[in-house]
Amino acid sequence: MLPLSVSERGLGGEVCPNADGERSEYWRPAAGETSPPNPLHNPFAERTDYFPEDRRRVSYALQTLWHEKTRYAAGVGAVAFSAVLMVLQVGLLLGLFETTSIPVDHTSADIWVGSQDVRSVDLGVPIGVNLHMARLTGKSGLVGQPELYLANYANLTRPNGGMERCFILGSGLDPDAAGAADVLTPELKSALTMPDSIVIDESDLNRTGLTGLGDRIKINGVEVTLVGTVRGMKSLAAPWVMCSLTTARKILATYLQPDQTTYLLVRAESPQRAKEIVNELNAEYPEMQAHTADDFSFSCRWYWLTRTKAGIAIGYAALLGLLVGAVITAQTLYSATMASAREFATLLALGIPRKKIYGLVMEQSFWVGAAGIVVAWPVVYLLSLGAAAGGAKVVLRWEVLAGAAVLTILTALGSGLFALRSVRSIQPMSLLR
User: Fold this and answer.
1) Which of 64, 33, 48, 18 is nearest to 371 (CA)?
2) DSSP letters of 121-148?
3) pLDDT digits (tens, 9 = 90+) for 294-334
4) What is the pTM of this model?
């Protein structure tokens, strides 16, 4: 009789109770069996009930990771670090360049019409009002009349005598004006109807030398009065200065003629109709440029992203984080695999194909990457809240999170491929040493 050292049913037969009715540690042939199984026979090859059912529900790779969690902790931490670094850098980059399209994002216009080949809202040049107005109003599917929008740089003189560049945003102030910034309350719109009045973001008070409502400064030699502040219009370079069309035309008198504007803004019946009108205008009048609001917003960000090369610099930093995480993860998996060399050699001696051990290592790599992502996301959200408290915006779009997750998993799998080198050197003969 053979000892039941693996399980009560692992090698066939049945349990033989002893004289006291307790479990016996010896094998007894089951019905139809006449001899014990070959002790050299590999039970893994044919039997599916070798492991209890509840254990077979969890993969061996996951069980190994959980049992040896301290051994794999460094790899999980490295993957989490690279994911956090990548997401935060991309999020900071997106948040930084969102400020370049603020005038577009905070209006309700569907279509922007400007000069030829204008790629950013701050690069517009004067266009004739009558000519472009006639071209635009000839299209069906518009809601309301096109509105003037004056936008250009100006020189601001601080109260202490210093100079600062600012950007004038002059728009209509009616309750349903398409060009009025959505951060302007009815009270602020009413205040801006006063001659030579302006509104800026509260974060730009120090830059402009203003301290509070009623303060006066000069912009292009025109004395203006601060009548209010808003939030959500923080600038990347020159502060955004919101005012009425009358005030803007007075400040930009040397730049704009009375019959000129920087942009024409209008709403459309639907986003689809807005795209159709834009395509028609660009095809019929190549000397002008029409954009949908979404396209113009993206164009502003893309222009500044490529012009300043900031995207390349941040991309290199994110790549460096990925490489650091990949190296640490690969070394962790390699060390863990070598530490399990005797166990793998035993499996090879039992007849387990080497490719299945390769699959085990790659599955471990996948779960290390997944665990790193689970650890990284709460850290990312906490750090983004901290950045927001400090005045830096981190944009966490689902595309960024999904892309980072895919890259993180691929990095972990690449590290697993590196760790397979140790498996190739494992031989069953090593058990005899």
Assistant:
1) 64
2) GGG---EEHHHHHHHHHTSSSEEEEEEE
3) 999 999 988 888 877 766 777 777 777 777 777 777 777 77
4) 0.70
